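Example record for the data management plan.
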Amino acid sequence: MKKLLSTLVVAFSCYITFGQDNSLFTEFDNIVGINNTKLSYGVIYKEKYRKKFRDNHNFYIDDTFKTGSVFYRNQEFKNIELKYELVDDFIVVKINNQEQQISIVPEKTLVKRFSIENTSFIYSDSYGFLEELLVKEQFSVLKKHQKTAKENRDADYRYHTFRKKENNVLLFKDSFYPIDSKRDFYKIFPAQKKQIAAFYKSNTFLLKNDYKTFVAKLITSLSQE
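Corresponding structural encoding:
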């Protein structure tokens, strides 16, 4: 059992690319000990970044597994262990076998949504995974979490450091739009530039301190005009 599983790990690790463009996936539910589920459809996870500093990593929150849920291949899996990688934008789920634990990278285009420590994310073709900040009937305010990796050399030691970047996104009328500036709103609502400019001017405190509420009030005011 262990020998067969180790062989699979080596085989998949040799070919995996975390952009997942090669669509290299496999069904091995019987091997990992999961019956009648679809969660084991994915590739074996292997960390490709070498880290020197514990607090500087390529994951959301930190590099440990957290309790959450995944809606994957039209099926919801609750109370599972997962973590969210931000450089290459994928999730890693832990699958428990009777003899050992396996980390799987599900195909992200088949992940409709997931949650990690009560924070919800959805998938979009244009942005990948997006955090749901505010969900309304007519629109949603979302956030894109990203990290970039930089390779460093210290004598003969090679390691990576990471820098985080966040962007705001609006889901409006089934389309996703960047909303990090006033100009972004001008592009979405070109006929209402004066109203947008006036709203920005009179709501500077809300803009700096509660962005999701700022956007919600702005969209609501524009929709009523």
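Summary line stored alongside the record: The first strand starts at residue 42 and ends at 44.
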